[in-house]
Design brief:
homotetramer, 141 residues, 3 helices, 8 strands, 25% helix, 40% strand
Chain lengths: 141, 141, 141, 141
């Protein structure tokens, strides 16, 4: 990946993307940090989305990793390049219980057509909850 | 997979599992049909979960495929065997627009420790929206 | 997938592709059958490629599934469209011991840019050895 | 992952494993370095395994990543714990042409039953060729 000095989007632009995304809104995803090819989101623990036993649902981890990668791509391509997920693989490694989740996505290869990257979700005590591979495809405008 | 004459759960038991699952409830997943090693759910189109442009969100497809596989496994093992998802890979193939989604999961190999299966989501006009591979692991009780 | 009456290649053309592919040659892959969007190859058991204990190596199952999908795509696009594998996921389900392997690949979605399909390897006694998801991308000529 | 001061195997033990593995032998995999939960192998370029156009075959990248992960697991569990691959997903990112390949695997989660890790293959000029997720399962002895 070519090194970039500056992300192609601002924090306000990424927050607007989150505010306009129905799923990011349902789960109250919050922007923690970002840089070229990278984005970290926080998922606040929400009582009503827990599974029996207080376990954070896998669906939340899959969703936040997809959104974090989408934003990580925007840091490279800007917010107006249309991209969609073609493939998302999640491996569930540990359970989160009644706690916030921190998800970091980073682009490994921003190709001409396909963009491939990784995401991982960790608890606030740094336990690795899930690992994800994600592929986006650029949509010709 | 050994052929079974009867599923190990009833329709009422599966409907109760759906009613008690927060995610199945948010998305109003409905039991369409089931048999040994197989389960089909319907996802009614919900205005508030659509993406810009009326596209059914990928998160819904991932979530319903995970839940459908969970129920498909229950048809083999009964509803009291604890299992959790270890891996779920989704390939997004076509977009669903403002329409119900039908998701069918089926177990390919019910192993001693791991259970592997496939799921697919289709539109009501039979367009293939997404394809999923899913692995569950049995939790020793 | 649009139904096609005729494959876009002949058996002789597919056999030539196998003969010219170093990996297909090392493993002596043989064309069993094919149709539009589908191809079946046979892997003869070769003593020198076995793992300790007479188990057919996973590398053989991954390789034959990749080649079978490549040929399945040719049945739709002809043998001159350049395509390369972007993603191949293998789930190993049962071990093959000192026996031939039959691998069938079929295209699920022949998209404009990406082609997605499944492959499975079975023993000659119909035991499911491995299951594969495979994505190819078309290379603009 | 618990930090370990010492790998559970020696370099000689890992080299013996490579020497006894038919696939590692065919491809002449060489041990470059290892540490607790990590292993790096070198794949010398072999004329006879190239694809048309001098491209290193995907099968080699898949095979070396599987073997490197196997050895990375041995650095944690010793060489006598039986483990087998249950899942290996490869994303092909760039082509290697007539050059050696360096593959590094590392364990992300050494669980009680499943061991999950990542591998990547790079050219000797540090181009990322492929990225892999790999799951092994322990076989009860």
């Amino acid at each position: 990946m070519r090194a970039r000095v500056e992300p192609a989007v601002t924090a306000d632009e990424l927050r607007l993307v989150l505010a306009e995304s129905p799923f990011a809104r349902i789960h109250s995803f919050q922007l923690e940090s970002f840089g070229p090819g990278k984005c970290t989101l926080r998922v606040p623990f929400l009582q009503e989305l827990e599974r029996p036993g207080g376990i954070v649902a896998g669906a939340v981890l899959m969703t936040v990793s997809d959104v974090a990668m989408w934003l990580a791509i925007m840091t490279l391509l800007g917010k107006d390049t249309m991209t969609v997920t073609t493939e998302l693989k999640t491996t569930f490694l540990n359970s989160a219980r009644s706690e916030d989740v921190i998800c970091t996505a980073r682009v490994l290869k921003p190709g001409k057509t396909l963009i491939y990257g990784l995401a991982e979700c960790r608890s606030t005590t740094d336990v690795l909850l899930s690992h994800h591979t994600i592929t986006y495809i650029k949509i010709p405008s």
